[in-house]
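Quick question, first post here. What does this chain look like in 3D?
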Amino acid sequence: MNPRESWKGVFPAVTTQFRADFSVDLDATAKVIEALIADGVSGLIICGTVGENCSLSQAEKVSLVEMAAATARGRVPVISGLAEYTSALGSTYAREATRVGVNGLMVMPAMVYPAKPRETLDHFTTIARATDTPVMIYNNPPSYRTDVTPAMLAGLADIDTIVAFKDSSGDTRRIVDVRNMTGDRFIPFCGLDDVVLECVALGAVGWVSGMSNVFPREGETLFRLVRDGRYAEAMPLYDWFMPILHLDARPDLVQAIKYCEKYLGRGTDLTRPPRLALDAAEKAELDAVMEKALATRPALPETGLPAAA
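> Answer (accepted):
Ran it through. Tokens below.
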């Protein structure tokens, strides 16, 4: 798949489903993937932050990516998160994910400590050169304190396999800054749910989304409306969606997303420790958000989505 042609639209960051003993449930995760594809999403992110990448062994991650590629069967691109602690481990995982059929890699800076810019750039470069698989750079400074600035991205422009960036900083100006520095060199993705309208309006062609796991048809419809300049129709949907989209910006976004999935029967709310289940007050808060969302769920404008499953 050519990223320039296929890396567009909504790519839910798929949740990893666990059994009661916290072992990975490949069959249940495959069902989640199949339901998302049936609802019309444009791509899939496997083993991202929402997929609990850093709580999985490398073997578990490879098995999840292999299953996702087999489940997708080429219908949508499958991109794997890569969040290894060293460049060597990251390169090994990149080769293994490529071997089992991934279409791309969403690479985070090495974790644990905030790196110097040249360390981050070297990490990205090493992994990007480990395979021919296209790479999306993932920037999320609120979560892991390492900021991949537009100037740093410009410094990666000569690495052919780095083709896209996902920005979760919340600073929508960065889409413009990167474009001014590099033209159309990188495919821009929104990475934070509650600024998606602004990002797409400024030129983002894709959205790595957390809460589109819960409301995939609403997410894909919102994206298409904004992409097509249909703002009068997009704004009421965005207003309805915003309390849900805010959940993607919480530190416990994984628990929140999985709880909402369970609320709608789209998965379980089990997360692997050290992520613990939400407490009673947090669950009550999300129950209220979901109850209101379902009571006021809007009819969706026609955007070419397939018929609902």
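The longest strand covers residues 162-167.
The beta strands are 9-12, 44-46, 78-82, 104-107, 135-139, 162-167, 187-190, 206-209.
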